Amino acid sequence: MKFEYPSGATPLDPNEIDGLIPSHISTQSELNEWEANNILKAENWLFSKTSHGNFLTIDFVKLLHKKMFDETWTWAGQFRSTERNIGVQPYKIASDLNDLLEDVRCQIINQSFPFDEIAYRFHHRLVVIHPFPNGNGRHARLMTDLLLAQAGQPRFTWGRQKLESEGPIRKQYISALKKADRHDYSALAEFVRS
Ligand SMILES: Nc1ncnc2c1ncn2[C@@H]1O[C@H](COP(=O)(O)OP(=O)(O)O)[C@@H](O)[C@H]1O
Ligand SMILES: [Mg+2]
């Protein structure tokens, strides 16, 4: 099958495409639907439990990705081993992620920022690390919503539309992330509650 990528998406490499589990999928829209169904199950699992204990750990970050894509990709829950146009070099993923998770734990304890700001900064740093071959945006949005929910805060609304495919809302989201790349979080702050 031929994959189509919206702007701001990271193309898969041939090895990763070989990891597609369902053999009947032959179009992008079939894949999108299959992935969405897989993710829905993960979301139900995620928000049906009142506590996930210490979820700000590498193991949990991987577990959530695994739950989101376990029926779709053989590499679900595994860090990428190849370089991308977005993301740190593969050998730095674990250490950068550890730093991020530790920073966020400290920010929560010290109330370094208003909670929303802790959450959208976390989201941005997580997609900048880009730990997985694919699904980084969807995974980082769910991790961020979990961070909010576990602190008793309402989840972000993320533009109230599917961000997976091309469209004005996705454009707004990617452009807000690009501003955040330049340390200007104003657009992202507004977007996550729009
Ligand atoms: N300039 C950028 N800075 C930070 N994050 C970005 C940037 N461009 C794209 N992203 C993030 O990368 C995601 C795309 O990565 P990908 O692994 O394909 O995720 P998904 O498959 O869930 O869309 C986008 O949804 C967005 O979260
Ligand atoms: Mg993608």
What attributes does this structure have?
194 residues; Fic-like fold; 8 helices; single chain; mainly alpha; binds magnesium ion; globular; binds adenosine-5'-diphosphate
Question: What features would you describe in this structure?
Answer:
54% of the residues lie in helices and 0% in strands. It has a single domain (28-191), classed as Fic-like fold (Orthogonal Bundle). The chain is mainly α. The N and C termini lie far apart (35 Å). Helix 5 (115-129) packs antiparallel against helix 6 (136-150). It has eight helices and no strands. The protein has helices at 14-17, 28-48, 58-69, 93-110, 115-129, 136-150, 168-181, 186-191. It binds adenosine-5'-diphosphate (ADP) and magnesium ion (MG). Adenosine-5'-diphosphate (ADP) binds at residues 8-10, 86, 127-128, 134-138, 140, 164, 174, 177-178, 181.
